[in-house]
Amino acid sequence: MLVRLFRRHPREWGPVEWLVVLGIGALAAAVITALVLLVRGPGPCGGDLEEIGGDCVGVTEGAFEADPQIATLIQAVADENARVREGWESPSSGPKIPYVRIALMMPFTADEHSAMTTDMIRRGLAGALTAQRQANSFGGPHYQLLLAPDGRNLDQWEPVVDRLAELAKDRSAPLVGVTGIPSSTPETRDTIAALSKLKIPTVGPVITSADMNSTYFFKTSPNNDQFTRALKLYLDRNPADRKGFLVWDNRDEDVYSKNLRGVFERHFNDTYDLSSHSSPFMGSSGTAEGIPQRFTDAVQKICNEKSDTVFFAGRDQDLPAFVARLAQEGTCGRTSELRILKVGIGLEPTLTAKAPTRWLEEAEARIVDASAVDPAWWAEGTEPKKALGRFLDGFNEVKDDHTLGVKPLDDGYAVMYHDAFTLLADAVDRTFTEINENDTRTPGAARYLPSKDDVYHTLVFPSISGSTCSSCLVGAAGTYGFEGPDANDQWAACKPVPVVEYPPRPGGPDPSPVYRTYRGADPDACPS
Questions:
Q1: Among the four 50, 57, 109, 421, which has the fewest Cβ within 10 Å?
Q2: What is the CATH number of the domain that holds 96?
Q3: How many domains is the chain partitioned into structurally?
Q4: Which of 136, 211, 150, 153 is nearest to 179 (CA)?
Q5: Domain assignment of residue 205, given as a range
Q6: Considering all CA atoms of the chain, what is the largest pairwise distance in Å, rounded to the nearest integer?
């Protein structure tokens, strides 16, 4: 028919004829594109994610292409998620097991400027997988761990949040919370604000900047102020000559380092006169222009002033370069040991490798780290306490199946990512039990699954009151809880903050009291 139309009017094509031709061309192009995609498959990002700037971005329960060193861990999470779905849709035996979803929002790729290194990513992911498997081994609802990559620089958060908002409305398998947010940056602040606006409870496993606060944002890690209070307790017992020096990262984009510098100055300026004894450097994380890790000025001043206590307000990735520069100068004629005070989730294994250890010896220096964890907790011959032992059992199974690098627990990421997921899962279990325990409906009827709002109200209810800790998190990093919606900006209370020395002193650690967040070092300040 179309051919007869064109033959009848060979030189008189009007708008109708042209629209027909264009429509046929567009249809043909769409068919060809669909066939090509069908042949190629969903691509490296799978069917749920989109490629943005070289990274897969979005939310998925399945596997996708990320850093090769975490590929097997991603597949393990995808397999566990498939098992959970099967337990509801087509269980092989027994009743259907309902499930909820917790999203792990973090980078899954890294480069030299990223906020998270590949080691941090895979250890955090291993900790979250350990917690997911543990939660799914108990009764009650099971858990999918949704993978929510938001770009190596945390700047592709908007499409992720949009998708999480959709998933939170799904009552058949509701999204009940988000965890994984790893670093204190302006992008992180925007992410937290957006999730809080959606009323999605979110847990930061390794956030430490004291000003990263929002109504729905809970933190299981101590913050910079709490870490610094633990260091103050240490220095009160070990004052030395009080010749202090501040080394600080001057990048405007690094919220963490800026906050830590301010906290150090507030707590120690009067005693150590840091305002007159300091030197900046540019850190390696982020995209700021300039040469990073230039420590010549700082080290020369430390030598000239015979400083004995250095406060390092920067990220762990930059500390080995600083120690290497100190080693080049040697002891500088000091008659006492140089203490390098830092804060962080743990002792990054790059700090305790052979070369940095040798540099510390050459400079007669020691790292003093206020930390969320202590490697002594899982040292050989030590009997782990409470939930730590259960965590280690599960983590060792993950470690046997996947390559996690040297000292995979020492940086604390696996432990804290485990605890963050467990905090949400515990809140789901308590909510589910409370709602359904007096259920008088027909036996076998579907149980009510908690929503994100239910979980938030469970989390925000005070778990610590006076000398009781009835609903505290019994985590791998200690037993700790929260004190209610108007207390402490949702930072955990009674979390132990050990001070770890490296290299360790002969004869074992200093038996000084352990600081506990917001309750101080008084052993009676927190429930036993």
A1: 50
A2: 3.40.50.2300
A3: 2
A4: 150
A5: 55-222+394-436+446-459
A6: 104
